Amino acid sequence: MQRALALARGVRGQVWPNPPVGCVVVRDGLVLAEAATHPGGRPHAERAALEQAVDAAGATLYVTLEPCCHWGRTPPCTDAIIAAGIRRVVCAIRDPDPRVNGGGFARLQDAGIELSAGLCAREAAQVMSGFFHRVRTGRPELSLLDAPARSAPEGVDALLKTVDGRLAVRPAGRPAQTLPGGGTPDAAGLLTELGGMGLTSIAVPAGDPVAAILRPFAGAGAAGQGAVPEPGRTRSSPTG
């Protein structure tokens, strides 16, 4: 699981709107394949790892987040796991997305796959803190930088800054986007708008006018297992 967590950490800031997930497939003590969520959020880590493995029948799959069980832009990862003949799944933490939220676990168990959940859950929640925060609040996790910046720090989805009196979002590795409107923004409304774009984490450079407005929201994120939303208390998610 530590290797899966390392893979997930390595793609933070690159895979929104989806969470950074790591997956390792092991059989008889040998690693058959490993992968993380690809840039842009697809393919998911489990599907990418299983596509690498020539034969994963009877193997154990370690993954940092509950496999998805719904159809989005890609088929469910649970279906790929079942089709590959995986014997056992070891998962760090439940996916709070209301489209999953325990459904992936149930699908695997119904297929006769042995399931173990909770290994390194707190570490996994920290790696995916922005995703968990967005699911819980509808807003991305916010950090205020100590210095000016031209691009998003490593591991952060996007930089938010004021350019010629307008707010601009500069995602890592993607084109910048100027937000509509002007004047003094409503902090909660602005963050909700950014969450609706799929962003899970943003940073604001020091000295930017919007920093003072957003300051009350800085540092609020999912720091551990207790941040996982309970069923019925989550928000709709733009992930797929």
UniProtKB/TrEMBL annotation:
Keyword Cell membrane included in the entry's annotation: no
Region (Disordered): 220-240
Organism, as annotated: Mangrovicoccus algicola
EC number: 1.1.1.193, 3.5.4.26
GO BP terms: riboflavin biosynthetic process
Protein origin, superkingdom: Bacteria
InterPro entries to which the protein is assigned, alphabetical: CMP_dCMP_dom (IPR002125), Cytidine_deaminase-like (IPR016193), Eubact_RibD (IPR004794)
Database matches in PROSITE patterns: CYT_DCMP_DEAMINASES_2
Keywords: Hydrolase, Oxidoreductase, Riboflavin biosynthesis
Family matches, as PANTHER family: CYTOSINE DEAMINASE FAMILY MEMBER, RIBOFLAVIN BIOSYNTHESIS PROTEIN PYRD, CHLOROPLASTIC
Domain CMP/dCMP-type deaminase stretches: 1-108
One Gene Ontology term of the molecular function aspect: diaminohydroxyphosphoribosylaminopyrimidine deaminase activity
The keyword Oxidoreductase belongs to this UniProt entry's keyword annotation: yes
Gene: ribD
Pathway: Cofactor biosynthesis; riboflavin biosynthesis
A Pfam family hit: dCMP_cyt_deam_1
Name listed for the protein in its UniProt record: Bifunctional diaminohydroxyphosphoribosylaminopyrimidine deaminase/5-amino-6-(5-phosphoribosylamino)uracil reductase RibD
